[in-house]
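New to this. Help decode the following:
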Amino acid sequence: MNMRVDCSMRASLVSFSPIITTTSSSHSRTRRPPSLSLGSSSFSFWGYPFPRILQNNFHVHHARKKRSEPPQPEPVLSPTIVEEVSLDDDEEDLLFDDFENEDIIDDDEDYGEDEYESDDAETYVGDGGAGGGISLAGTWWDKKALEIAEEVSLSFDGELKIYAFKTLLNSTIRVRIETLANKSGSPTMEDIEAFTTTYRARLDEAELAKSIPENVSLEVSSPGVERVVRIPQDLDRFKDRAMYVKYYASEITPSPSGSSSSESDGVFRLVSFDMETKCCTWGIADVRINREKTGKGRPLNKKQREWRLETPFDSLCLVRLYSEL
């Protein structure tokens, strides 16, 4: 359900991804096949184009002190290529059909803040957005804003945590919160509204004290359904979920020529991980995008189900939850 609530002024239905936006000014806007050998078996990774996926919609709450222009959604791009893992077996004839490139584009998006940052930037761990972590613009006030946000988080007795915090040069604060009350970590609309109301009130106090500028806008949202999985701390939490994994293949099978690491990726399931050896063991995830490569309606065969990939923690470029929605 997509919805927006103006907690101080009005409520209306909207059709874009959830972001809670608050501002204290009268003018504000929101911008939106290398071969891998393991043991005695050889498996081919077939690359195929994979549609970019915008973050799935979830609850949104907007609160403003004064009238402002309606916010626009911030597109969150997922990696566009998924490697298909298939069996190199003379007894099997598997059909590999390429998917067509397809971009999912919201024609209504308004990139009015291009002078501050690019929405097309690739997600990475610690980017202050869907990749989590903290990213400060280097303004005179952003450390104070972060300090206040951390105090607000503590006021909820540890139930609401800051997943990502980011400040922009146009006096905007973007916060993504998660909850420890459920395994997915997704906060409810009530959680987002409560955090927004409390944080906005503290920001108003800081404005009066001249600790932050008077035109700061606030956006609060959840990490999203395809949130980044932090290594290793989130592995046990999301071990039952399919994950998109991008990794350096040559860290596992070094090139004889000594060339630099090459990236590979795929949609896998976590079989196990070892904190002592700092390695993960992956299997092929039983999801549609993998099953379709073996023929329509055909499940993964035995050898594919038993296929394994071991990756050191430091070879993992990006791991995020994978959604078929």
